[in-house]
Structure formats: structure tokens, C-alpha cells
Design brief:
The complex is a heterodimer of chains A (246) and B (416). Chain A has 246 residues and is an alpha/beta fold. In chain A, 46% of the residues lie in helices and 15% in strands. Chain B is an alpha/beta fold and 416 residues long. Chain B has a domain of 230 residues: Rossmann fold (3-Layer(aba) Sandwich), CATH 3.40.50. Chain B contains 17 helices and 14 strands. Chain B has a six-stranded mixed beta sheet, with helices on both faces. The model of chain B has no long low-confidence stretch (mean pLDDT 94). Classes of the chains: A alpha/beta (246), B alpha/beta (416).
């Protein structure tokens, strides 16, 4: 199967009009999915690059995702939302209803299994009732028993972070991390993200058995400069690296 | 003393508890929006150590070179049945103590100083930098650096620097340069001294100075406690204990240790975490981080250069009283230990000075060992446990993390 390439963008950065134009400019067949981050006042598991794409305030109108969701449907790009539970909790009941209204089917909540373990199971069920799959987010610090439990509770693909936060680089043996993930997670696609610096990292993940990657920090500076061509160029490079690793 | 062939006892691997924790550890958190203090660790820590810090591997091979040094500095340390103490207390069960004071530097600290210095030297580093409170960690760093052919610099909390000249002297004999903290050698030290010229210092301030100094001079910084990698190295204590108990044909029912940053305690009990043993963390009444601290993100160091960790903390700005047990003055405790205390798997209790001094006297007069005042807390907690039910048949295992031969003044002068 062809490795999947997901790109991460933060809603409203630099503005939604640019984001919509950018998504439209991505060549067909390059990107398999869009991970759309919702603005957070405390994106604490993100590194400095992604943090810089979040404003100071987390309040926003959920209907702002409407435009980009429509474009992705037209372009047949699968979308998953990324939102911190600390923000979801503040937004209340209307949040999940809003996501459903805009046909969101998948969501990553990076802090849910770490800081909100007591609420996690209930929230995952609430998501399911709203027609939204919870995408488990694991990393090197996720204990085996937590991985086993949430594999049982879910049936989606898995997001696995290579680094302790996005876009940073501490020493990690990519092959060992991928092997560990594969040894615990069977029959499910695993997409690796967090600190994939270049095509070489991407290819190593695929060669070790990963099913795809997500990139975000790598294109933040281009997006900030509204340089679509530069961002698309980088995305193509990752695509080629993924394809060449198969 | 417990005797057997040492190679049967020292483990080949350290144990990392992270994949076996009941919940996921919260990752370190950056403090500044536009910088990554996690990534900054690349500049001050050896690559291999940083890899271990974020590792999911249960077992980490002890390098052959470190194993050889472990033999040289007195590992395995003895596990001794405290028969005299049992008699004195009229206890029906058994009390064992793991004696980390038997290492050449007199405490458990050398267990992690050796691998950290080895990893730094392997990268061609010429000098390592660290802080010390009571002096045990600085002593271990000084020796580990020399054994690995490097220089060392130690920022010693000012109160200890002046109250413990012998500790300073030992570090210097091992080859370290020792300065009182706050010092005029770093920007943070100068700022702190500017606010209060006679500042007594704290471990948080000394850590800040050591990290700043390492960054400025491109040296490597040595981690004394709190971090996962340190606790992984300290698991040598618990793994040896498990083997020694197995040879003895006994099992641990109760495990007791003292907590400063949490490394001796965690290293002692974590290898037993899957079992049924009751675990008690003993802290100083004056620094009640586990019983009265807040469980949440806080700074490791006072200056906030290092990332924040989710842990029990009294606040990074906490200036502890100049207590008799300097090693317990740190404001926080290791994240994995904090999580297990928060979940109730590990119990915590505070012990006051009078009770500790009495316990130290009792231990010295029955077992002949003058324990470090920090370890005195563990002994006091063990005595408390026995007194609650002297007829119990439980095996109580106590980690005596160091000797107290350089702390005798607390007996004669009542020094605080």
C-alpha cells in the first residue's frame, strides 16, 4: 500500500482564506490527509514552530472550519481535527455538535490520555455518539497497558509521536521506535509524526514498517510567508521520499 | 554482611519503568513560547543520556566500561539483615537494609554519575558541570569525572559550602573545582546575589547556575536526580536487592526509602513495582513535597532554563530551611514517582528532625552504621512501621542511601 502523507495546518494561520487557497494548490495525489489543528491558548505538546501558529486566544467560531472542510471534501482529502482537551472542555457541548455539522469524522486529542485520564473514556464514547472516531495518540512515554486499552476501545488508525513534542529534535532511534509501535499495534495503520525533519527520516519510517507520516513544523515558515510554492515543493519532497522507500 | 559472588548480583541491564507505568507520563513542557527548552537539552546532555531520558525500552544494557567502574566503586552493595535492630525493636518479622553508603563516595549518587560521565567522555567532552546540595552528588560527579578523564565543576549550595568544608575538600581531592552558589560566575548567580548578598542558596538556584555555565562553556551538565534517565541508572539498587532477596529466599513485603529528588527511592522500588510490596516514601517534615506539594507542572530549576515537569512540588522558588538533611531540600520529586504517589501505589510520609536523629542513633548503636541524615528518614519510617505492629512477620526492606560520617555535627551541635 502506498505510504500516507498527512500535512498539519493550524486553523486561522495565517488566515483561513490563505489556508483554503493553499489546500486547493496542493497537487492531486500528493497528500492523503489534512490534520487541522484548532487554535489553542496552551498547545503544550507542540514545539515552538507549531506554537507560533496558535494565537494567544483559543476562542474561535467552530463554523470557521466550514470552508476548508468543503474544499477537502471536493478534493477528496481526508481531514482529521486536532484539538486539546483543555480547549474542548471549555467549549462545551456545542463543540462536538459543530464538528458533526461540518462532517468531521476523526479527531486527535493529544492531551486526553495524558492529563485527562479520568475523563478520557467518557469523552471517547461521546465522540463516537457524535459520529467522530477518536484517533489514539501514543508516543515513547505511553505505557504498554495504555496502548492495549485504547486499541481495544477504538478501531481507527493510530498517530504515534516520535519526539516528545512537535518539530523538535532529541536523539531518537527511528527504526527502534517504529518496531516498538508495530510490536504493540497489529492490524492498524500507524502514522508517525513529531519531528520528522526530512525525506530521509520519512523513508526510514516507511522502511521500518510505518504506514505513513505527518508533517507540520517543516512547512510552518513557508505558510507564515504565504509562500505556497515553497510549501508545496517541500511536500513533494516528502512524497517522493515516501514513495521511494516502498 | 551478605556475601556472594558479586557478578551474580550486579544486573546486566538497568530497568526503565516508563512502559510499565499505570498512566502515561506527561512530557516535559517548554516555558517560553518561542524556544524549546527540551531541544536545548541537546546542548547540555550527552546524546546517549538524552536517548535514555525519552526511552520506551524496559531494559537498558549497562555498558561494559560502566560495569567495570561499578565493581571498582563497591558494587554490589550489601543487603544486610538488621538482626540487632529487630531485637532492639522487639520485631517478629525481618528487617533488611540495602547499604548504598558502602560505595567509595558514600552514597547511591555514584550509580548515575558513572554512566553520565562515561557518556560525556565518549563524546570527547573535557569538563562536566553540576550542582550539589548536601555534597553527595558533587562528590560522585567529581570522582566519576576523574575516573573518565574529565575535569569537573560543582556549584555547591552556599549554606552547605560553608557548613560542610569536608565535603568540599573531598570533591577537590577528587579533582573538582567547587564554588558556592549563588556565585558571581553566572548571570543568574549575580542577579540572585544582587537581590540578597547573603543568599543561602538552594538546589534550584545551583541547578540554574550549573546549566547556564554548561551552556556558556559548551560543557556537559550532570543530572543529579529527578530525571527518568537518572532513575533508570539508579535501578541498579533495586535490581541488586531483588537478586539478593532471591538468594536469601525472601520476598519484600514493605520497602522504605527517603526522597529528595526521588532517585534513590525510585531506583530502589521501581524494579519491584509489579509485585505486591507496600512502598513508603519518607520525606522531611520541613520539605513536605509529597504530602503537601501540588501535583502539576513546575520548573526543575529556579531560573526556568530547563523544561517544566509534571511532579509534586512546593514551587521552584521554595527556599527550604537549612535543615539537617540537605539532600532532601529539593522542591520537587521525579515525575514517575510523583505519579505513583498521586495514584496511591506509593505512600508518602513526613518525618521530623527529632524522630530522625533518634532513629539514626538507634541504627548506629544496633547496626554500627551511622547513616546519612537523609537515610535516617527511611530508618525512622521503618521504625514507625514496626512500632505500629511489632508482631507482624513482614519483611521490611530499607534503603540506606548513604553514610553520615561527614554529618556528625548534627548530633553534637544540634545544627540545622
Amino acid at each position: 500500500m502506498r505510504p500516507r502523507l498527512l500535512i498539519y495546518l493550524t486553523l486561522g494561520f495565517p488566515d483561513n482564506k490563505f489556508l483554503e487557497e493553499f489546500v486547493l494548490s496542493i497537487p492531486e495525489g500528493t497528500v492523503d490527509g489534512l490534520e487541522l489543528g484548532l487554535p489553542s491558548s496552551d498547545p503544550r505538546y507542540d514545539g515552538p514552530k507549531i506554537r507560533s501558529t496558535h494565537g494567544e486566544k483559543s476562542s474561535f467560531d467552530i463554523d470557521q472550519i466550514g470552508g476548508i472542510m468543503q474544499i477537502c471534501r471536493d478534493q477528496e482529502i481526508r481531514v482529521n481535527i486536532l484539538s486539546y482537551y483543555s480547549d474542548i472542555e471549555k467549549a462545551g457541548e456545542r463543540f462536538l455538535q459543530g464538528l458533526s455539522r461540518h462532517t468531521v469524522h476523526e479527531m486527535i486529542v493529544p492531551d486526553l490520555l495524558i492529563d485527562y485520564t479520568e475523563e478520557a473514556d467518557t469523552f471517547i464514547n461521546r465522540m463516537r455518539e457524535a459520529g467522530i472516531s477518536y484517533i489514539p495518540f501514543f508516543n515513547a512515554a505511553t505505557p504498554d497497558r495504555v496502548i492495549e486499552k485504547y486499541l481495544e476501545m477504538t478501531d481507527s488508525w493510530i498517530y504515534y509521536g516520535l519526539q516528545p513534542s512537535t518539530g523538535i529534535n532529541v536523539p531518537v532511534n527511528i527504526s527502534e521506535v517504529v518496531e516498538r509501535a508495530l510490536s504493540l499495534i497489529n492490524q492498524r495503520d500507524i502514522i508517525f509524526g513529531f519531528g520528522i525533519r526530512n525525506g530521509s527520516d520519512a523513508a526510514e519510517i516507511i522502511r521500518a514498517g510505518g504506514h505513513g507520516i505527518a508533517i507540520g513544523s517543516a512547512i510552518v515558515d513557508d505558510i507564515r510567508r504565504r509562500d505556497r510554492d515553497a510549501a508545496v515543493y517541500k511536500i513533494r519532497e516528502y512524497r517522493e521520499a515516501l514513495d521511494s522507500a516502498v | 554482611m551478605y556475601q556472594t559472588r558479586e557478578q551474580d548480583i550486579i544486573p546486566e541491564y538497568w530497568y526503565n519503568i516508563v512502559p510499565d507505568l499505570p498512566e502515561q507520563l506527561s512530557p516535559p513542557k517548554d516555558s517560553q513560547r518561542d524556544k524549546s527548552s527540551i531541544e536545548m537539552l541537546n546542548r547540555i546532555l550527552p546524546r546517549k543520556l538524552l536517548e535514555q531520558e525519552f526511552s520506551f525500552k524496559r531494559k537498558e544494557k549497562i555498558p561494559d566500561e560502566v560495569m567495570e567502574l561499578y565493581h571498582q566503586i563497591g558494587r554490589p552493595t550489601p543487603l544486610v539483615r538488621a538482626i540487632n535492630l529487630e531485637k532492639k525493636l522487639g520485631y517478629s518479622g525481618k528487617i533488611y537494609f540495602k547499604y548504598e553508603g558502602a560505595t567509595v563516595t558514600g552514597s547511591h549518587k555514584i550509580n548515575t554519575a558513572l554512566p553520565q560521565a562515561f557518556y560525556a567522555a565518549s563524546e570527547g567532552v573535557q569538563e562536566v558541570v553540576t550542582e550539589t546540595g548536601a555534597g553527595q552528588w558533587g562528590t560522585a560527579t567529581a570522582l566519576a569525572a576523574s575516573l573518565n578523564g574529565m575535569r569537573s565543576k560543582v556549584f555547591m549550595v552556599s549554606t552547605s559550602f560553608y557548613q560542610k568544608p569536608l565535603r568540599k575538600q573531598i570533591m577537590e581531592i577528587y579533582g573538582a573545582k567547587v564554588v558556592p552558589s549563588p556565585s558571581s560566575e553566572t548571570e543568574f548567580g549575580r542577579k540572585t546575589l544582587g537581590e540578597r548578598a547573603d543568599h543561602p542558596g538552594s538546589l534550584g538556584i545551583a541547578i540554574s547556575e550549573a546549566v547556564e555555565y554548561a551552556l556558556d562553556h559548551e560543557y556537559k551538565y550532570m543530572l543529579g536526580s529527578v530525571m527518568n534517565s537518572v532513575i533508570t541508572h539508579q535501578s541498579v539498587i533495586g535490581l541488586e536487592t531483588a537478586k539478593q532477596l532471591e538468594i536469601e529466599g525472601e520476598e519484600a513485603d514493605v520497602m522504605i526509602g527517603c526522597v529528595g529528588g526521588g532517585s534513590n527511592f525510585s531506583g530502589f522500588v521501581f524494579p519491584f513495582i509489579a509485585g505486591r510490596a507496600e512502598m513508603i516514601a519518607s520525606t522531611a517534615e520541613e520539605v513536605p513535597k509529597l504530602t503537601h506539594g501540588k501535583f502539576g507542572y513546575d520548573f526543575i530549576d529556579t531560573a526556568g532554563i530547563l523544561p517544566q515537569l509534571k511532579m509534586f512540588s512546593l514551587g521552584a522558588g521554595f527556599i527550604p530551611p537549612g535543615i539537617y538533611a540537605g539532600g532532601l531540600r529539593y522542591h520537587g520529586a521525579a515525575p514517575a514517582l510523583s505519579m505513583l504517589v498521586h495514584s496511591g501505589r506509593i505512600k508518602a510520609e513526613d518525618v521530623g528532625e527529632d524522630e530522625v536523629l533518634q532513629a539514626m542513633r538507634t541504627f548506629a548503636s544496633t547496626q554500627g552504621i551511622i547513616p546519612a541524615p537523609e537515610s535516617g528518614h527511611a530508618i525512622a519510617s521503618a521504625i514507625r512501621y514496626v512500632r505500629r505492629d511489632p508482631k507482624s512477620k513482614k519483611n521490611i526492606i530499607v534503603n540506606v542511601s548513604g553514610h553520615g560520617l561527614l554529618d556528625l555535627s548534627i548530633f553534637s551541635r544540634g545544627e540545622k
